[in-house]
Amino acid sequence: MPVDFDFRWAAIIVSGIIGFIAIAIMFGASMFISSRRRSEIKLTSYECGIEAAPFRWSQINIRYYIFAILFLIFDVEAVFLFPWAVIFIGNKIAFYAMLIFLAVLGFAILYGWRKGVLQWSK
Amino acid sequence: MRIVDFFLIILGLLVLFTALSVVVLSLTWLERKFLGRLQRRLGPNRTGPMGLLQPVADAVKLVLKEDILPSSADRAIFWVAPLVVLVPSFMLWVTIPAAENLVLRNVDMGLFYIIAFSVITILGLVLAGWGSANKYGILGGLRSSAQLISYEIPVIMVVIAVAMMAQSLNLIHITNFQLPGIQSITPETARLEAGIQNVPFAVLQPLGMVIFLIAGLAEVGRTPFDIYFAESEIVGGPFVEYSGAHWSVFFLAEYMNTFIIAALTALLFLGGWHGPFNPTSPQWLESLVGVVWFLVKTYFVILVIFWIRGTFPRLRIDQLMAFAWQVVVPLSFANILITGVFMYYGWPWWSLTLMSLTLSSVIGYLIYKHVTAPARKVAEVYNRRRMIERQPRRQAGRQSSGPSAGPEEAVSGG
Prior knowledge:
The complex is a heterodimer of chains A (122) and B (414). Chain A is mainly alpha-helical and 122 residues long. Chain A has helices spanning 2-33, 62-85, 92-115. Chain A has a single domain (3-115), classed as Methane Monooxygenase Hydroxylase, Chain G, domain 1 (Up-down Bundle). The radius of gyration of chain A is 25 Å and the shape is flat. The mean pLDDT of chain A is 78. Chain B is mainly alpha-helical and 414 residues long. Chain B has one domain (65-374). Helices cover 70% and strands 0% of the residues of chain B. The longest helix of chain B has 37 residues, at 2-38. Chain B is globular. The model of chain B is unreliable at 405-414 (pLDDT under 50). The chains are: A mainly alpha (122), B mainly alpha (414). Chains A and B meet through helix 1, helix 2 and helix 3 of A and helix 1, helix 3, helix 4, helix 6 and helix 12 of B.
């Protein structure tokens, strides 16, 4: 049984490798076939027609981090929900415990809503 | 024996890759033709009969084009980003069944695996935007991260609700559970009057299906939610600097993901490969008819997706995020709650449909009120102004007969 299990997941790893190789072949073929005429101006980064300003890695708006943190909370919670979803029937403690957990999360959403975290601009 | 199995897997994967490429080609043709018909155009009709060779011509063109690597870009990240986007969406197809015995590897945690791997695509998009060292690219990459992680949560929640109904994370079990008359998989669900409850989950959870379609559209960045590569705002977002083969890989991944969302909708909510005319005696015929049903349902969902693309304008980013966190996430939580209560107390099957429909109509009404609020305000101001204007006219008689206020004036006044 453990051997079978390993073998089953091995197929998924092999699929990743095969996808990788197929795309690499496509890139290689494209490199061979396609035309190549490099010039200084062609390799500059894209701007609106004017000469590109020297690029600095720019600052990022803080909202992106807030949404990323929110996502982390809910994603971790989803990891708890997945095993619960297939065993909760007839399991009184599991069911009510998860209801309490969801209530806490719902309260968290409401709190974020009141704080204005969920709005993009405010 | 083991080595033969190994080569069989590799053969199967190659067949899968070829089939997916053909599917993507068919999707590009279908999208252009269908959008053309929606806009009263003919669509592609020059290359081959009905333009059927157009995708082939496009593919050849893309491979022949020069693959430019801008000098300011971070070379390694720029190169690897398309792979990070495409390879996970190919790996998902290993576990997605097209018929009961037509799946490369049936994994018991299939649903969990699919959710886990579909998130990697986000990383690829952020890498693409970051690596190309372009302002539009970075903006697009960040937008894609914000949008995709926000809409990932409703997808996960709806999928969990489906797993709660079927009491399994295995895609084949979930799909078989929707066939009327089949025995329940676990003794716990057998308690719930098997045979009555086994209908396609679209009937039991209309709310879940709608949420899954909306959030799925946002996940693959189809048109109402395509702000992260919006051409008119950030000129292609993460894909600005890409050309040739690298760009075509992003394109391939987008269509593959669209197909995955449609296929998952068909499997989880529409009954997958089960249909009215399904022979059971020879196994090959059963598989064949199953695949046909599966493809019919999947392409139906895909046509709906294209129809949405032809109908709705693009959202703004604030509307998009507000919709995700204030409408779709709470709704998906409510979906889990009603499903849990329904399953735990063993209520009759139509009660879930009723709860789901009630919830979705209430929320739909609220959204309708919210969306049409500005228009209703304009109408109110307009009406009030007309009332005010009518009164002095009556007092003054015929003398003051100025032109009545048009709607534009009413808007500027209000």
